């Protein structure tokens, strides 16, 4: 039996969380305002009403306490899903994530599992104030013991959150907040169908002129750039990384060996970032296939600016196309 529904990313996450809670009574949701309010982005809307306050818990404003409590719950056999309200609020919980959550499975030689999901709305483009638009994913991708993923579409949102919850190791689940309720990104999903594997890189548009690799909110930018480039006679292949740690770069290597050029795209600052790692690995594995250096299109190496300036900070279609032209003119 099929159950086709056309969903935004936000609604897909809500239904994915609901299905996980229906299938496993050990799944709990916890975070600031996730209960009665349904979260500031309404991703958990209606879940406390249907599952009760014992399974959808409104917490104090204390990220270290949220993560620390989740660690304890995981030790006792629960599968907590923590929401960090905005990505800039995650740093009070950084010690718990890096020193406890990431290490307990290894430290106990596998005796203690850490099935904890940390949902992180991230990225800019919503006109918010300081600490509400950062892209800290590279910091967590650097920590062994954590799986770091980032969705870009409703299909991966629905199936990915369920797969993250079923993982026996901790998952940081980065969600592009400005795309939560985008009607243009609605996708038809068989919510009762066979799960779609979500934690590997995926070619989302085929091309031959150059490769553009992106993740999270930048995937839409890459696809828009590819559509614009087609009008100029250029064929861009777009790859959605989906998993940021461990990186699945096999499809990227294969694509670069075909196109000879790579543009790495991300909202995060460029220095010591995921785009840095991608550039280094591609140079190492595809050196003799490259027709030009790997180029990166990123946010700037500054704190995220006030909302009036964010359109100049965020990588856009024009910056991607300019990088493609630079690569082709090398």
UniProtKB/TrEMBL annotation:
MF term (GO), any: oxidoreductase activity
Top-level division of the source organism's lineage: Bacteria
Coiled coil: none
Cofactor(s) the record lists: thiamine diphosphate
Pfam families: Transket_pyr, Transketolase_C
Record's keyword annotation contains Glycosyltransferase: no
InterPro entries: THDP-binding, Transketo_C/PFOR_II, Transketolase-like_Pyr-bd, Transketolase_C
Annotated keywords: Oxidoreductase, Pyruvate, Thiamine pyrophosphate
Transketolase-like pyrimidine-binding domain span: 7-182
Protein name, UniProt field: Pyruvate dehydrogenase E1 component subunit beta
Organism phylogeny: Bacteria, Bacillati, Actinomycetota, Actinomycetes, Pseudonocardiales
